[in-house]
Amino acid sequence: MNSSQNAVSQAKSSLNLVLRDRNTFGFDVSAEVAYEITAAEQVPAVIRGVTEKNLPWRVLGGGSNVILPKVLSGATLLMNITSQEIVSSDEKATLIAVGGGVNWHEFVAWTLDNHFPGLENLALIPGTVGAAPIQNIGAYGVEIGEYIDSVEAFDAKSHTFVTLAKDACQFAYRDSYFKQNPHRFIVTKVIFKIPKQWQARIHYADLAKQFTSNLNPSPREIFLAVCKIRTQKLPDPKMIGNAGSFFQNPIVPNEQYKTLLHKYPGLVSYPDALGKRKLAAGWLIDQCGFKGQRMGNVGVYENQALVLVNHGGGTAQDILGLAKCIQDKVKKEFGVSLEIEPNIL
Ligand code: EPU
After folding, report:
1. Distance (Å) from CA 306 to ligand 1 centroid
2. Which of 79, 112, 216, 241 is the most buried (most CB within 10 A)?
């Protein structure tokens, strides 16, 4: 291993760094050269260096939404910027600027401890603050885009730092301008706007069930209820490797939805914008009999068919092989294409 840390402005680098603990699938992978980014100012020099040498590069946050190959060639930027400050506060909202490397769940817990409620529905989502706007993380009826004021990022195309206001981020279901422009933006800071006026958002079926006898829950009660549901339904990556939902919930035209519903009266779906319908991919996969199934070292989680797991010793190839089987069967049975949610690097 070779390391250097000449100045705060220079990122520390390591050769052949093992990343088993930095990807929630727990794949046995390593990075040819890893740069630990602890300050935004370190990013331009790293990107300039790899661009000049024509080397591949990618950014790794919490590693909770990626499928990694055995060796990550070129440069891997490990985002570890952990700054956090309240920028301003007036009678309407509080602006909080948070470094891209801050752990998402710890930030949510901090907002509640400090009386800035609003993000409680998004508790226990693995990953970092910097990754949150990229796929516009969402759960239990809330998407993070609603609470973002702006995002600061290094633009590898123009080699400058940019600030994108909320509208420019083009947030949509598991989508954003950053996701639409892969390999371009390195998110260094997210500025959240938390309104002072708070309202419980417990309409999502699973969450509503927790509050049948308490119609006015506090933010803390919602936070705890979300943690409870997630712990029951989703595997803890420390115990069993996974990347949360492996597929997006497919959005289909209303006509197709009606035809499917006629044939499958139990079909689970939600209304979506523009008269379309979002189908529960977990239900489709479950109906195909995959839940709890194993294929070598990988499989489908026993409590939630949308989650693929690494039982130990699995690889990206194994997971993608299983994913292909699922996609083919769902397509054959329902005529619906499932799109993989994590990034395949
Ligand atoms: N279902 C089944 N069998 C299954 C799984 C689900 O029949 O094995 C049916 C059930 O009827 C269930 C419905 O599908 O009520 C929906 O399932 P769930 O409430 O678990 O939500 P989801 O649509 O599977 C989405 C997000 C999750 C998020 C939850 C809660 C996506 C791709 N996934 O899952 O996000 O936590 O809603 O809001 O949108 C993630 O992105 O990694 C993630 C976990």
Report:
1. 7
2. 79
pLDDT of 162 strictly over 90: yes
pLDDT in tens, 242-299: 999 999 999 999 999 999 999 999 999 998 877 899 999 999 999 999 999 999 999 9
Which pLDDT band, with edges at 50, 70 and 90, does 7 fall under? Answer: very low
Calculate what percentage of the chain has a pLDDT beyond 70: 98
Distance between CA atoms of 301 and 245, rounded to whole angstroms?
10
Q: With a 6 A CB cut-off, is 116 part of the ligand 1 pocket?
A: no
Whole-number Å distance between alpha carbons of 137 and 34? 26
Q: Which two tokens stand for residue 345?
A: 């690097």
| Distance of alpha carbon 135 from alpha carbon 127, whole angstroms | 11
Say whether 36 is catalytic: no
Q: Is 341 a catalytic residue?
A: yes
Question: 0.70 cut: is pTM over it?
Answer: yes
Residue 8's pLDDT is what? 59
* Number of CB atoms found within 10 A of residue 211's CB: 15
User: What distance in Å separates the CA atoms of residue 223 and residue 217, rounded to the nearest whole number?
Assistant: 10
How far, in Å, from the CA of 345 to the mean position of ligand 1?
24
- Report CA-CA distances (Å) from 316 to 45, 64, 152: 31, 14, 31
In this prediction, residues 148-176 reach a mean pLDDT of 97
Structural domains present in the chain? 3-79 (3.30.43.10), 84-195 (3.30.465.10), 241-344 (3.90.78.10)
Query: What tokens were used for 218?
Result: 């506090």
Say how many CA atoms lie within 13 Å of 319 toward its Cβ.
Answer: 30
